[in-house]
Amino acid sequence: MWVTSNSFKMSLVADLDINDVRVEFMADYVLKNMKLKPDKFSKCYNVDENKNMFIEFFEKHDRTQFVISANAAGVLSLSFNWPTTLKTKCVFFVKRNKEAIQKDSNIKTALLYGDMSQFPMDQLSSFVDEVCICTFRAQRTIVSSCILELWILFGSRKSPAHSNLFGEGPHVDL
Question: What pairs with residue 5 in β-bridges?
Fold first, then answer.
């Protein structure tokens, strides 16, 4: 349930009584991406062992990744290790630094997070869409910037060698 206005936003975890903004952020991400109801996260988090895993992830330097998966019934399981095989979709959180994440930290910048599909082709498609294409676009932007800089440097010069770079003048082999 999302209610939004200019100054008020209620998330899926507003009624869970978690009292830790770091865990609330993770819970909200898990519930949205796995399309679960808040009670599924609440049942998981209210188990003391699971609650301690969240705290351990945030406060221990050697805990750099945290993976949350759900079985077919929507029961969440937690792990500090990457899964070797996936039977369902899962989400991951990775610390950007090997430092503790305090309650007053900006959690969005302290973590890298995303989801993993159980289907390898979905993962490949996501990788191409989110990494390869973005890298290509960034490279194209860099090339465009270089061409602009060359035009600024050499555009006013009307020598045949430089003018051909910008579509002007006769063809000159360099």
Answer: none
Residues 69 and 17 in one domain: yes
One-letter amino acid at 98 equals K
- Contact (CB, 8 A) for 25 and 107: yes
d(CA 136, CA 25) in angstroms, rounded, equals 31
Q: Are strands 9-10 and 3-4 parallel, antiparallel or unpaired?
A: antiparallel
| 172's tokens | 């000159």
Tokens representing residue 42 in the block: 């609440």
Q: Which domain holds residue 136?
A: 119-174
What is the β-pairing status of strands 111-116 and 90-95?
A: antiparallel
Read off the pTM: 0.65
In a shared domain, residues 63 and 74: yes
pLDDT in tens, 70-123: 988 889 999 999 888 778 888 999 998 889 999 988 998 898 888 887 776 666
Distance, in Å, from the CA atom of 106 to the CA atom of 25, rounded to the nearest integer, reads: 10
Evaluate if residue 157 carries a pLDDT over 50: no
Residue 67 pLDDT grade (very low, low, confident, very high; cuts 50, 70, 90): very high
**Residues facing 10 on adjacent strands:** 3
CA–CA separation, 26 vs 17, rounded Å?
A: 14
